[in-house]
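Practice problem 4.
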């Protein structure tokens, strides 16, 4: 397994902050990041100063301080390990590594004895470990989908929640009967009250529930229209702090759910919130966590500079547009880039928070943002429409634009007047990707494992993956491809009969060692070339026509220093490929064999007139 190697310019992370955790005694904060590192920060007077950086091989999802040993920290990573660090030791390696997990580890929590760790994973399992000896002890419970979070009360009761909607309580030492509660929606965050008598859970439908020790509902509050992702208790147990995918941090009275206020910052990534030392820490789309005063709920200190990871690509005329974590859309001339020159660069701000999706229109460009807006620019005219949650996907559709939403809706928009048009629930999970199929139809892919084709109102399921689907692509209206977390790429030739789409022939392409994040199609429909980028940093290629290569593993065309984030076709023979390391490749099949013809460092080109070339 290759390690992320983004470098750490400045004093912070080189990618967004995924998790925050306060030390119980000292004004210290641990942060996890997409850059594969854990930061340990000294927090004095509302400012943060990083004093230590710890490294995993993949992005880090969680950090947890030991309740008894002040210098011991556990961290959970997508490299399928949990590391236990003794910060009294200045060495670069963890004291122990818990490495028998079969998938990404999403969350960890210490038991009160300070010796055992509860760990939960994307494979659905919650496991118990002896952290002193690095020894696996037991499987606590199993979810039928990704297990997302774990918390342990001071009484030793372990709570786990998952995308299957299950809330599970386990008391390994008391012999008490385990308790379970089943929701119809995903539950991705949980936190015990300071007294250990109440559990708060964050639900995907915008609610936060407070449950007693029998998992009966004590309080249920609709926080927002989007998903709630994280929850924490005030130190005195009187208030709840809720991070939601509307981009806000919400403050509620724990007794009755009354609203105390909310905090809004476009660079906040409230998939994680934590309360400690009279402050609230929040994950962010910048190189450092955000800090709030717990009493006034106002921001403290300065916000670290944003990161410029590329999330989306689109071709607008003779230019290639790239949507970034920083809220910028960066574009460059395509022709000079392909000819070996230094293309001109322009940056346009579409907001302060991340741009997640892009769609080119004949009269301009539309961007979908994490804050839940579709922003369309046509010359000097700018229109914006709020959809209530992160806009994870966009695609042109005739004279309009279609947007995929976090709750599974597909919405048709008039990009000129920003008028909300037809809207339909198309998937049972978040719509991750859209791609035009022909002038009247488009593909969609979602976390419900399905790929569909059709119009806004009439859609046909093409196939189903074994896990969520990250991306779809099409070619000439007759070929479709999809990339999935099940490590596969599916490709099918399509035909339309009586208004419905049917798969004539299909292939399943293997090769990636991890989730496949992006997919693209080049060449003629009779002999398509498939490009796919993965969380294992590889860009692979398959040729499906006569004389094609090995369809089992494909050929590795290039390796990035982070996951490959997106692919878009420039013309029949050329594609752009971007990675979360801020780099861009141009790939061509014009010579009959796929090759990388140019590379650019987009992250370091922001603010420059010319793109900086990068030698692949």
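Answer key:
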């Amino acid at each position: 397994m290759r390690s992320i190697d983004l470098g750490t310019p400045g004093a912070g992370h080189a990618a967004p902050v995924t998790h925050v955790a306060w030390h119980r005694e000292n004004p210290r904060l641990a942060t996890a990041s997409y850059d594969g590192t854990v930061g340990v920060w000294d927090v004095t007077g509302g400012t943060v100063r990083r004093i230590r950086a710890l490294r995993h091989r993949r992005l880090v999802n969680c950090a947890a301080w030991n309740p008894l040993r002040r210098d011991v920290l556990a961290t959970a990573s997508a490299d399928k390990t949990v590391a236990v660090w003794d910060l009294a030791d200045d060495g670069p390696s963890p004291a122990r590594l818990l490495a028998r997990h079969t998938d990404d580890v999403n969350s960890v929590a210490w038991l009160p004895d300070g010796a055992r760790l509860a760990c939960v994973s994307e494979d659905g399992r919650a496991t118990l470990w002896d952290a002193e000896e690095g020894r696996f002890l037991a499987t606590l419970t199993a979810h039928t989908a990704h297990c997302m979070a774990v918390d342990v009360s001071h009484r030793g009761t372990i709570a786990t929640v998952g995308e299957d909607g299950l809330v599970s309580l386990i008391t390994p030492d008391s012999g008490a009967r385990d308790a379970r509660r089943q929701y119809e929606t995903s539950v991705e965050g949980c936190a015990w009250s300071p007294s250990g008598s109440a559990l708060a859970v964050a639900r995907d439908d915008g609610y936060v529930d407070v449950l007693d020790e029998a998992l009966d509902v004590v309080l249920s509050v609709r926080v927002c229209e989007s998903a709630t992702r994280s929850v924490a208790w005030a130190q005195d147990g009187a208030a709840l702090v809720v991070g939601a995918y509307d981009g806000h941090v919400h403050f509620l009275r724990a007794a009755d759910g009354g609203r105390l206020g909310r905090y809004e910052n476009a660079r906040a990534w409230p998939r994680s919130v934590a309360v400690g030392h009279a402050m609230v820490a929040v994950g962010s789309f910048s190189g450092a966590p955000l800090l709030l005063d717990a009493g006034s709920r106002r921001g403290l200190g300065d916000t670290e500079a944003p990161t410029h990871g590329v999330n989306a690509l689109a071709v607008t005329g003779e230019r290639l547009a790239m949507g970034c974590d920083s809220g910028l859309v960066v574009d460059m001339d395509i022709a000079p880039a392909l000819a070996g020159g230094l293309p001109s660069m322009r940056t346009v701000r579409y907001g302060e928070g991340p741009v997640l999706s892009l769609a080119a229109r004949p009269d301009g460009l539309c961007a979908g943002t994490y804050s839940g807006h579709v922003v369309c620019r046509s010359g000097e005219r700018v229109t914006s429409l709020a959809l209530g949650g992160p806009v994870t996907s966009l695609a042109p559709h005739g004279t309009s634009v279609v947007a995929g939403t976090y709750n599974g809706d597909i919405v048709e928009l008039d990009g000129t007047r920003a008028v909300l048009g037809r809207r339909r629930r198309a998937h049972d999970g978040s719509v991750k990707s859209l791609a035009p199929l022909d002038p009247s139809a488009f593909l969609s892919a979602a976390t419900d494992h399905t790929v569909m084709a059709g119009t806004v109102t009439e859609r046909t399921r093409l196939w189903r993956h074994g896990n969520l689907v990250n991306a779809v692509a099409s070619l000439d209206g007759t070929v479709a491809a999809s990339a999935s977390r099940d490590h596969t790429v599916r490709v099918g030739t399509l035909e339309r009969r009586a208004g419905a789409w049917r798969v004539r022939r299909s292939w399943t392409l293997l090769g990636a060692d991890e989730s496949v994040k992006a997919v693209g199609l080049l060449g003629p429909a009779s002999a398509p070339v498939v490009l796919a980028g993965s969380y294992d940093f590889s860009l692979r290629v398959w040729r499906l026509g006569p004389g094609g290569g090995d369809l089992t593993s494909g050929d590795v065309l290039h390796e990035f220093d982070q996951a490959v984030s997106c692919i878009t076709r420039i013309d029949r023979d050329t594609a752009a490929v971007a990675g979360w390391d801020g780099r861009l490749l141009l790939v061509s099949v014009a010579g009959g064999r796929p090759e990388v013809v140019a590379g650019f460092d987009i992250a370091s080109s922001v603010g420059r007139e010319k793109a900086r070339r990068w030698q692949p």
